[in-house]
Amino acid sequence: DSGIIIGHETQLDPASMGFEVQAWVQLNVHQGELDTIRTHLERMPHVIEAFSTTGGADVQCRVVARSTPHLQEVLLEISECPAVTRTKSSVILSSLVSHRKVQALDLLEL
Predict the structure, then answer these.
(1) Is the pTM of this model over 0.85?
(2) Which residue of 2, 20, 75, 84 has the smallest Cβ count within 10 Å?
């Protein structure tokens, strides 16, 4: 009941399911429109994570695509949201450190 464990999930390899391309997409959105962009992104199965952020972008999300032309289609679909004013994307070439969960317990000793 301490809230440390918030769930259990199976992690899938997007490439083995035909999604060879992954990218980080930074979104600039109209102020006060986070609920609009959240609703839009939740409806897009190719958006596998999305975060409200500080810095140069308002939202950062990770997307999967079958190819670079398909990535372009995904980016265009994101841009169709009226709350989005600009997108900037970076293709992920490889994973250097995979998503950490259990290792985060080591932080408790800091």
Answers:
(1) no
(2) 2
- Round to whole Å and give the CA distance between 71 and 110: 40
Sequence-ordered list of residues with C-beta below 8 angstroms from that of 38, at least 6 positions apart, any chain: 50
**pLDDT tens string 52-73:** 999 999 999 999 999 999 999 9
Structure tokens at 91: 């293709």
Q: Which residue, chain included where needed, has tokens 């997409």?
A: 25
**Which whole-number Å values give the CA distances from 59 to 75, 81, 102, in the listed order?**
14, 13, 26
Tens digits of residue pLDDT in 87-96: 999 999 998 8
Tokens of 104: 């985060």
E strand or H helix at 78: helix 68-79
Residue with tokens 């265009």: 76
Tell me the C-alpha distance between 87 and 25, whole Å: 7
Report the run of H or E that residue 70 belongs to, with start and end. Answer: helix 68-79
CA distance 66 to 47: 13
